[in-house]
Amino acid sequence: MKIIIIGGSGFIGSKLSRELLRQGNSVVSVDLVASKISGVAFIQGTYEKGVPDSQLIKNPDVVINLAGRSIMGPWNKEHKESIYTSRIITTRNLVSSFKDKNLCPKTFIQVSATGWYGDCGEETLSEGSPSKKNTYLAHVASEWEQEGSRAVKYGARTVIIRQGNILGESGIISALKLIYEKGLGGPVGKGKNWFPWMHIADLVQIYIAVIKNENFQGIINAVSPQSVRYQEFSLQLAKTLEKPHFLKIPKFIFRLKYRGFTEEITSSQKVVSLRAWELGNIITFKTLEDALTNILKP
Fold first, then answer.
1. Of 53, 100, 253, 283, whose Cβ has the fewest other Cβ atoms within 10 Å?
2. What is the pLDDT of residues 193-206, one digit of tens each?
3. Number of domains in the chain
4. What pLDDT score was predicted for residue 72?
């Protein structure tokens, strides 16, 4: 199949591209920088500025939208606006391009996040649970999904994947590893908030299974079957790295640098996936210990 990935050079896009190529597909990445994966065709640009002028985007079987600026960083007005526009405007322009039948895929996969649910405390959240819309990211994710869902009216089978914290050599593990290796790791605040997670290899298999299962559509939560609190995640990370774990970072100290982002990372989502079984037995890393051992001690 011909598969176009918007944001294909990033952490998830690179892993996914490699596996799609291995299975004999052709992959086109639309991004600001070229993919490091040999064999991936490249279009430099983003849909945030409009539809790229390239023949490579025509007649796709699958379009996967992974575009979106990292939420990490100081939450000033400029950064928050960038988080919004890189998701909402990009997705709006991308889906609107599907009016052209030569650009409309048979399958459209839109990334989202478990942050869609908001800060939900101890409540167990499945694909059918409503959003509390009580955080900035919950509002962004809600609009993000609305824009992506418009692909249905153009005839594309549409799947929205709400991802938890994706664990791999990049992403959150890369951001935390240096701190924990210095023995300074610990949760922000009390660490009682639920921490939805999934190993990157399992996430890739979800995307692959969604592409192959032509009857699957709608929402799926991409989370591990093991629910953990952030305190448990932090402790297991330190244990895997064989480092001490005794610090707790007061929220007010974290807030001095990251402002409103503090409330986002300490929000609680106890997310489960009631639809993963529809894609088969594809989850390999069912426990946090196995996942972190694989990533940090391969």
1. 53
2. 999 999 999 999 99
3. 1
4. 77
